[in-house]
Design brief:
Elements: E1 2-6, E2 9-11, E3 17-24, E4 32-38, E5 45-50, E6 56-58, E7 66-71, E8 76-81, E9 90-98, E10 102-105, E11 109-113
Parallel strand pairs: 2-11
Antiparallel strand pairs: 1-3, 3-8, 4-5, 4-9, 5-6, 7-8, 9-10, 9-11
């Protein structure tokens, strides 16, 4: 199983980035997918999630700015991040989950928001 996250980088406040997470080795369409982020010294937190059926939920801090989507034909989940703030800077991780007990993590991609 591999979750390959990409798309991170340096962006100015107010800018946009799109993260991608390409999955392999799993039946992608049956997995719920999520994006989490973590900064040093803090717990990893859920940013956005999308179920296998396409339902989405977001952390309050990103509602209206971030959009999660998935392309089952490409086994890929995306996170469109707009109006980025310095507090959005973190390592972003992709997560795949099925049922209660099966979960996989990607390697993380660094997002830096700074002028």
């Amino acid at each position: 199983v591999q979750l390959q996250a990409s798309g991170g980088g340096l962006v100015q406040p107010g800018g946009s980035l799109r993260l991608s997470c390409a999955a392999s080795g799993i039946s992608f369409k049956i997995f719920d997918m999520g994006w989490y982020r973590q900064v040093p010294g803090k717990q990893r937190e859920l940013v956005a999630a999308i179920t296998s059926g396409g339902s989405t939920n977001y952390a309050d801090s990103v509602k209206g700015r971030f959009t999660i989507s998935r392309d089952n034909a490409k086994n890929t989940v995306y996170l469109q991040m707009n109006s980025l703030k310095p507090e959005d800077a973190a390592v972003y991780y992709c997560n795949a989950r099925s049922g209660c007990c099966t979960a996989y993590w990607g390697q993380g991609t660094l997002v830096t928001v700074s002028s």
